[in-house]
Design goal:
Translation Initiation Factor IF3; about 35% helix; 3 domains; homodimer; alpha+beta; Rossmann fold; 7-stranded mixed β-sheet
Chain lengths: ~475, ~475
């Protein structure tokens, strides 16, 4: 038997090394030849497909349609909105040659598509009757990042970008908030990540946005991850790209817009939030494999155990489970246990000669360690109990992550305390902020913590004195971030 | 009432103008700022989404998984396979600047991904235990074409590309044939396009392939469209990219590979095969809207008819139909009839005061003109009859297209006859070919017809004398192509 198994670095000891090693061992992604580019391997892509399906259904339920816009954006289009150029110019990849000829105008590989989509919208929007336009695009985008890490920061990534056009400021505000809500629901219900939601401070807004709504996750190492954002663009882009329409009074007015995005970056968040020293822990709703059957045999009963394992596999598959049977004969059960725990499969089904005799199987859940995670289930009750257990795991993973987030969300009463928490404990720190970029910048320089979000009124948004300036302020949430 | 409706050019009078006008009027696609680039608008994209779902399910049922590989391919990778460079070099778009710096090596925007995927595979494939690798990718690709036309030939298009690795020549051949079969099934069962299938002549093979299997559709104007191809790559790429594995005898050997692709080009095929003078005709399985309800009201009964139309809409929607209700008050029923016929909606449901009184509705099918396409259906039988009718339309559209293809597939007994058919009637022409590139080239130069495919043995593959050289030959299928 082949027993040699690569030892995973402990998450607690070196989270950065743990992360990279796990991405490789679990075959989630692999490095490409161009710096910062990656292949998303089938096991990682299957997670993304399930996230896509979840989001796409929610987008359609809220009235959106999918479309596809060109990859290449002429430089002159990007320059139309000043903040966009400034923000993205350092990160652009440029096509300068096409069909063996030097191009007259260079073309950027889209870093985000506002500029090119607005050009189409300026033709498609003529009358209030054409509004709202509620379009989403699933695509690849490119940002030439200096320091990259699989999923979390990559030169090319996959995402969806919604781009909507509305008649009034109220409608675009409502849409941006609605889509933040859609993202929030997906995080809670599907990714089991209890994101905090709120608004970005002006300095952290998307270029050209009048308001950016964000979902911020707290990673296992106490750092925040901006997980998805939704922007109210107001009339900034409609003015830059001349998107006007005749309203009901026959006046020509500028439209109001939103954009919102959710990317493969969240797969990095999923690893960092749920993973532990044993490896990945994938929420059942996203798991490519919900349950893996591991037969436990010896030489003299291998045939019988294999037959039973195969029968159970067929039964569970026919019942609609995403199930694997690991019938490999080279590796020991112990090796397989480690392997599938590392891959984050939510449930292991153990089946040995004793179990066959007793007409039972053993269910071992990934989210609860030790004896408490193990249960003996009568064979005829197995499909029902497995379905139930997967639901329990999904809920428990959200509960575990929520407990962690709550334990790592603290209120700082003084600037010293804020610095101490950021330095020693990390996590989210709530503290009053006077609303000026100066104190925000001061804290960022001294602690490397940024304002992750400003809570909505009534949600932790208490008043108090700014810890730096002493001026009146309202609660902001600080953290070091990915 | 607004009655002005743009008049669609007749397909029979000017198929090229008809095509471009229809793409615009039906809001399938719109021109981008860079030559040859297009946005696929929601109505066009919804068709693509349904094609994707259909193919993706078939790929998964045959054991394939999805993954994602980088967009940008270093020049040195493309150069590893000589035929690939030669074929694609004139059509490449090159990224030469990234992050404000001139790149040391320029990067091609993928025209197809063999070169970059093979690089990953050379790492992933080590032992016979790693095989087969059965991976598919949904993505965008770019080919800097000189003359473009929406869907049919565009600088950027969407497609899927399957890339598989196998231990033996038999397995890669079997896989390439299997995927041609998957495509064929999708064409017949879902797109209602009766493609001819066979092999390409050596000169028409994919660069680097040892065999290319093709699905060729016959368009309404008698020209052929290469609709999807599947390639047996043999060991050409594994040798160029060093994809080797230890076989069961512990010998290191080169792997065998396939690739296969199906693109948004087929939407162009769908328009050309099924469209008529009234506009699009979308097969029910792909139609974004299966049925549209058009109320027929006058001033005094508008309220009642509207209420009934809304009730019917809810009922059909709840029954799972993709249904629209056109309750617009600005346009006449006649205008709406034209509009939805132009958009290719398979069934129109008319509902007027008389129908309400008689507890019935009128179903009008798009695929049969005149009175024969119209039936009165009791209101309570409507959902059942509609479901049935959609199935009948799907079948009938395939039957109509098959009849057209058969009527336009002819056997030429002499070279003069071949030229005459190609010139005057177009369509597929069957004629013996001696297998040499010389006669193939000769016919191409004189008639603009190319060999679309060589039928499989036993399928029209009769022997005879080459019409040009007089030497013994086997049947080839000639046509002018898009």
């Amino acid at each position: 038997m082949v027993e040699a198994v690569e030892k995973l670095t402990k998450k607690s000891e070196d989270p950065s090394k743990w992360y990279l090693q796990l991405v490789r061992m679990a075959k989630l992604a692999d490095y490409g030849p161009v710096r910062g580019t990656f292949a998303i391997r089938p096991y990682g892509y299957a997670i993304w497909e399930r996230i896509q399906a979840d989001l796409d259904a929610r987008f359609k339920a809220t009235g959106h349609q999918n479309a596809y816009f060109p990859l290449l954006i002429p430089e002159s289009y990007l320059k139309k909105e000043a903040e966009v150029v400034e923000a993205f110019d350092p990160e652009l990849a440029w096509v300068t040659i096409g069909g063996r000829e030097e191009l007259e105008e260079r073309l950027a590989v889209r870093p985000t598509s506002e500029s090119i989509i607005c050009d189409f919208y300026s033709n498609w929007v003529q009358s209030y009757r054409d509004l709202p336009i509620l379009i989403n695009q699933w695509c690849n985008v490119m940002r030439w990042e200096k320091v990259t890490r699989p999923f979390l920061r990559t030169a090319e990534f996959l995402w969806q970008e919604g781009h909507t056009v509305h008649a009034t400021a109220e409608e675009s505000r409502e849409e941006a908030l609605k889509m933040q809500g859609v993202y929030r629901d997906t995080f809670y219900e599907t990714l089991a990540i209890p994101v905090m939601t709120g608004m970005k401070s002006p300095s952290e807004r998307f270029p050209g946005a009048i308001e950016t709504f964000t979902c911020e996750g707290l990673m296992g190492d106490g750092r925040a991850l901006q997980a998805a954002t939704s922007h109210d663009l107001g009339q900034n882009f409609s003015r830059a790209f001349d998107i006007t329409f005749l309203d009901e009074q026959q006046d020509r007015v500028y439209a109001h817009q939103t954009s919102w995005g959710f990317s493969t970056r969240v797969i990095g968040g999923l690893i960092l939030v749920h993973g532990d020293d044993r490896g990945l822990k994938i929420p059942p709703k996203l798991a490519p494999t919900e349950a893996v059957i591991v037969p436990i045999w010896r030489g003299n009963n291998k045939g019988e155990v294999r037959r039973e394992a195969e029968a159970l596999f067929s039964e569970l598959k026919d019942a609609g489970f995403r199930v694997e049977a690991d019938l490999d004969e080279e590796h020991s059960p112990g090796y397989k246990f480690n392997e599938h725990e590392m891959r984050g499969v939510p449930v292991r089904v153990e089946l040995g000669p004793k179990d066959i005799e007793n007409e039972q199987a053993v269910l071992v859940r990934r989210d609860v360690a030790g004896k408490e995670g193990k249960e003996f289930v009568p064979r005829n009750a197995l499909p029902g109990r497995l379905r139930e257990l997967l639901g329990e795991i999904q809920e428990n993973m959200l509960a575990q992550a929520t407990e962690f987030r709550e334990a790592n969300t603290r209120r700082a009463e003084s600037y010293g305390e804020l610095k101490e928490i950021i330095e020693e404990k990390r996590g989210f720190v709530l503290a009053p902020w006077d609303g000026t970029p100066e104190t925000e910048q001061h804290i960022k320089e001294e602690t490397k913590a940024t304002i992750r979000l400003l809570p909505f009124a009534g949600e932790a948004g208490e008043e108090g004195k700014d810890l730096v300036s002493g001026k009146p302020g309202t609660t902001a949430v600080f953290a070091r971030a990915y």
